[in-house]
Amino acid sequence: MRTTQRDRRAIWYALYQGVEDVYDDDGNLTGEKSVSYATPVKARMNVSGGRGQAAIEEFGIDNPFPRSAVTEDLDTPFDTDTIFWFGIEPTDAKGNPVAHNYRCTGVAKTIN
């Protein structure tokens, strides 16, 4: 099945690169680790509407509303460590990074 051009929406994604050590201002190792991602890349995909339901849990409110992204490109490098920006850009008007609003929880590839 082909994805239609009119249903595609702009989405940004960044691939996981690894974990880096954190250094303080004097160049000393702090013992902390920082997750590193590649530069965000813009793509156009079919993205489903948010679906799910809110539930009151013992220690708060569980409010998961996942989305599904569909692309006809079988060579997409997504994995469960990929982060996404949907409906927002990865940088603000001043060029400062903006936190991602979605994380990949699973990849399902098909030959169709």
Describe the fold and architecture.
- The chain is mainly beta and 112 residues long.
- Helix content is 0%, strand content 40%.
- It contains no helices and 9 strands.
- The chain has strands spanning 8-14, 16-23, 29-37, 41-47, 55-57, 60-62, 69-70, 83-86, 102-103.
- A 5-stranded antiparallel sheet has the order 7-4-1-8-9, with no helix packed on it. It has a two-stranded antiparallel ribbon with strand order 2-3.
- 7% of the residues are buried.
Which key terms come to mind for this protein?
40% strand; mainly beta; 112 residues
Give a nutshell description of this structure.
The chain is mainly β.
Assembly context of the chains: single chain
- Percent of residues in beta strands: 35-45%
Number of strands: 9
Strand order of the largest sheet: 7-4-1-8-9
Distance between the amino and carboxyl termini: 6 Å
Tell me the radius of gyration.
17 Å
Question: What is the averaged pLDDT score?
Answer: 77
Q: Which word captures the global form? A: elongated
**Residue share in helix:** under 10%
**Helical region count?**
0
Note the run of SSEs as H and E: EEEEEEEEE
In the predicted model, the low-confidence regions spanning at least 5 consecutive residues are none
The chain-level structural class is mainly beta
Main sheet summary = 5 strands, antiparallel
